[in-house]
Each structure stands twice: as structure tokens, then as C-alpha cells.
């Protein structure tokens, strides 16, 4: 999502999520930009990107990430794990978003 940097496994999921950013009254607002949400947790995670916070650190190489999802995808670069297989060509990928 270009608005909040969340990742989705399909365009349909992204489209459904994008509606959450449409103009409406929200209860929580980012202190740094116009982003808003109905959920405080979304604001907390979003504001971390403004502050450059990366609380998820790889135990093997020390690289840090802003989300656990990105750390897990990175971890697979060390293990070689590719759990997402294409049904059409049998190629395998580290993340489900790489399938599309």
C-alpha cells in the first residue's frame, strides 16, 4: 500500500484495504503527515517509519526492519526457504507477493 506501506498477497486484498484510506472521519492521526486511521496500532506502526525505527533485527546479520513481515522475508535469504510455489511453473518464492 502506497499510503501506509502494508503488504498484501493479492490485488483484491490491496483494493479492499485501500478503501480504509478514503476520506472519512478517523479517530487517530499521524503526528507527521496527513495519514489517519480508525486504529491506534496503525498510527503507532506508521509513525515508526517517520522516525526511522526498525525494531525487528536479524539475529544472523544484524540488519533491522520496520515490520516482522519484512524480517521473516529477509530471514529466508539466509535459510534459502521458498515456501510459496507457483502452480503454473513450479518456481518457488520467499514471499507470497512475489508470486504475482
UniProtKB/TrEMBL annotation:
The keyword Metal-binding applies. GO terms for molecular function: DNA-binding transcription factor activity, RNA polymerase II-specific; RNA polymerase II cis-regulatory region sequence-specific DNA binding; zinc ion binding. Keywords: DNA-binding, Metal-binding, Nucleus, Repeat, Transcription, Transcription regulation, Zinc, Zinc-finger. InterPro entries: Snail/Krueppel_Znf (IPR050527), Znf_C2H2_sf (IPR036236), Znf_C2H2_type (IPR013087). GO terms for cellular component: nucleus. PROSITE patterns: ZINC_FINGER_C2H2_1, ZINC_FINGER_C2H2_2. Belongs to the snail C2H2-type zinc-finger protein family. This is Putative znf667 protein.
Amino acid at each position: 500500500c502506497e499510503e501506509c506501506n502494508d503488504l498484501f498477497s493479492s490485488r483484491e486484498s490491496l483494493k479492499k484495504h485501500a478503501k480504509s484510506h478514503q476520506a472519512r472521519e478517523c479517530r487517530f492521526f499521524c503526528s507527521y503527515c496527513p495519514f489517519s486511521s480508525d486504529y491506534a496500532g496503525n498510527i503507532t506502526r506508521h509513525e515508526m517509519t517517520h522516525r526511522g525505527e526498525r525494531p525487528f533485527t536479524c539475529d544472523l546479520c544484524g540488519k533491522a526492519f520496520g515490520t516482522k513481515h519484512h524480517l521473516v522475508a529477509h530471514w529466508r535469504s539466509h535459510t534459502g526457504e521458498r515456501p510459496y510455489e507457483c502452480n503454473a511453473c513450479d518456481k518457488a518464492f520467499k514471499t507470497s507477493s512475489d508470486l504475482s
